[in-house]
Each structure stands twice: as C-alpha cells, then as structure tokens.
Amino acid sequence: MERVDRSRSLPSLLSLVRYNFVVILVSVVVALGLAALYILSLPSSYTASAVILLSPAPGNPLTAESASTSATQMTVALETERQLVLTPVVFDLVADELGRPFPDSNESVQTSVPSNTQMLNVSVISTTPERAREGAETIARSYLQYRAERAEGVQEARVEGLRNQIAETDANLRRAVAEAGGSAYASQEVLLFVDRLAGFNNSLSAAELVSTYPGSMISAPTLPDHADGLPAWILLMVAAALGLTVGVGLALLREWRRDLIRDSDISTGLGVPVFATIYSQSQAELATEAGPEVHESYRRLRTAVIANAPRPYTLAVTAVGGESARGGSALSAEVAANLAVVMAEAKLSVLLVTTNALQHRVEELLGMDAEMGLTDVVLGGASAYDSLVERHGISVLTAGPEAGASSDLTATNRFRTVVDELGQHFDYIILAAAAAGTSDGDAVLLVADSALLALTPDTTTRTLLSVVLDRLQHLGVNPLGAAHVTLTGERPAGTGNRGAGPRFSSMDEKSEPEVARAT
User: Fold this and answer.
1) Which residues is 317 bridged to in the sheet?
2) Can you give the pTM of this predicted structure?
3) In principle, which of 203, 352, 399, 446 could form an S-S bond with 340, CB 3.0–4.6 Å?
4) What are the tens digits of pLDDT across the range 381-403?
C-alpha cells in the first residue's frame, strides 16, 4: 500500500481567493477605511516658493568684498543671508504688510540656498493655497526691503562721515594757508591737508557710487494646485496593497490550520489515486437519470474500477470526511448504488449490499422497501438468495428493517460467509460501508478485497485522510482508489474531466466493454 504523503505545499493564490474571499475582502476594506480616516484627519497644507537673486550690498552679509573673495567666505555669507530671512525683524515687516501675525500657528517658513548659486529659495507652508502664495511673495519683498534699508543706512552713514571729515580737513587747510607766510611748519601742514582732502574726496566719490540694490525676486510664487504630501489616491492604493497582503497572509494561515483537501489538491499526491470526479445529487435520483454529466462521471469511475479490480471482486465503498456534510453512511451508500447501476450497464453481474441501517439512501435511489435483508440472513438464518431484490439490472441485499437491533451485524463470521458465498455468483460485489474509521466501517473493509474511498473536498482534512490510510494499512486493507465527490452537483473549477489515477492513466472510455470481457 502506498503511504499518504504527509508533506504539504502552500495553496495557490487562486485557491486562497476562492475559499477565503470574504477574509481578504474584509482585510482590504478595513485597510482602506483606516487609510481614509487617516487622510481625513490630516490637516491640509500647501507650499508656495519664491526665488530671490541677491546682489552684494553694503551692511549685509553678502557684500562686494565677500562675493569676490574665497568660496568659503561666499558660502558663509549666503548661509547668513538665509538665516536673516527667519529673523523677527523680517517677520514683523511681513506682518505689517499682511495685517496679521506671521507666521501664525498653522504656518511655517523654510529657506534654502541652491548649490553653486547666489540665490535664496523661500517657501511658506500654510493652510490654503492663497495664504501660502501671499506669504511667500510678501516675505521675499520684505527681505529685499530689509536688505535695501540696511545698505542705504550704511551708505548714508559712511557718506556723512566722509563729508564731516572733508569739512574739518578743509578748515584746517585754510588755517594752514593763512599761517604759511610766517612759518615753515605751516607750509608743511598745507601740503599734508591738501593730500588728506584729496583722499577724502576720492573716498566720498567711491562711497556715493556703491550700489545699494538688494537683489530681485526672479521667480514669483504661484498658486499651489495640490496639497503637500502624497496624493490621497496613492495612500489608498498603498493601503489596499497592504490590506491585500495581510488578507492573503490571514487566508494562508487559515487554510493551513484548517488542513482541508481542496478541489485543486485532487490532482496532487494524496497517497491514493483519484479515479474520477463524481457529482452527488441532493434529490433521490440515480446517476443514470440525473443527466449526462453525472452519468458520465460514474462511467469514468466504472472504467477505473474495472481496470484495477479483475472480477470476481468484492469492493467496499466508504466515505472519508463525509459525516459532517451529508453523513458518511448515506454518502457511501449513494456512491455504491450509482456505481453498481452503472457497472450493470456494462453487462456485468453486480450485487449491492448495504451494511448499515442508516443507509436508507439506497432504498430511496432504487425505489424499494427494506423487507428482508442482511439482518435476516446473518442473524435469522434466512437464505441470502431469497433476500435478494432485482432493481435496475443489479441484485440488492439491504441491511433489513431490523438492522439497528445489532451494532455488530458485520463483525460476525456469518457475514463473511455470506459475502464469500454470494461472491461466487457475481462479477462484482459492492459493499456500502459505514464511514471510514468507524468500527462498522472497518468490519466491512476486512471482508472486501479492497476499498474505494469517497473523498469530499472542503470537508475532508489531510490529517483525517492520513489517519484513514494508516488505519487501512494496519488492518491489511488495500485502498483501490478514491472518488472525488462534489456535493453541490456542480463541476468544480479547474477539475476538468479527470480520469483515473496513476494506475489508470491511459485507459480510453470506449474500451470499457473490452476491459469487462478481459477481466
């Protein structure tokens, strides 16, 4: 017997979305909701910038001397100019012009010096685009005004000082000229004061020619067209991606913990070959009457069974994991009854034996009453052949109306003897057993040549299948194969028309009669 492969692989993304769509959707919605609340709680801010080209002006950090000397001194001068923009005196000028405090509690001013330039970049961050632009433009003008006033004040003070010195020197010169006739020392003073007066006049001319132009605003601020920070749609996209990632992670954890066999796992190694996908009907209707799709699914199962079970053969059908969905006994009875009827279509003699009193599904599907059955044969000594009922081309031995009186009906030697005797007259005996892993189910499996497992994805766990296969191995029961039972009656996504498992991969459906004759 092939042991079940206990190793597990991660489920596909499609499988995660299919079975955990609500979890992923809720995660995305929660992430988007939190992002929306964050966006709404953020105060809106807008930034407007003005660029000022500075001119060397006396009385300011950037003068003609600093602009024409080393690069280090130039850098220091521009950095000092940048800091001066943020001084209270400049802010007071802006507040006077705007008629309000500047900057207020919701405003801020930022300055920077573009590299390798003689410019300042002044930015104002405010609550509205209009206030931001107005603030940036006003602070640029106010700073230029401040530089101009400083330069003019320094120049006026220097000119005034030179003029006072010229007047004093001229007075001394006049005195020296008046005294020059009677004194040699006075004659020397005349020459000294003439030279000094000429120097002062030259300095005055140079001082009056020094430019006090502070610079200009070469780039006026424009009205911001969007708020600062990332756009809301980008934040929402990031939140959606984060929510999707968290949702997929939760779905993966949920799938891993639930350990369920999914439709997509049927084609992978489960430790037992999956012969076919069959469709269980909610109403009491045989596969031969339920429509071509259901009928075809059982014909595929029949082909695989015939190819792997040479007649005469006793096959026990048992459900794995069906107790929570439809009842393991009812499910195995349904699969066994439909398989028996479809095998009879291939001109095979088939006996269907129900071994559990709860398996009334057989009577419902075949339209018969449980009069005499296995209970009368095993416990009452009745003839097995007299208890058989012909329905839909097969012989049926029900559990009988009194089967519930004995929980050990199938555990007696008489049950094994009856099965062996009947097996000599039929190509196939199909035993509808209780759910795999139960004591009643195990008793039936010990009588059969092998077992056909009915797997119900989305309800059967890998752990349960592993336990069942290990139990069969300990009991010495060979699992012939498995049938993938879709309880909804709908074709599961991605299954297609699966055929037999590894031991029946090249069988053609058209060769069933030949297979039947050969076996």
Assistant:
1) 432, 452
2) 0.59
3) 352
4) 788 888 888 988 999 988 876 65
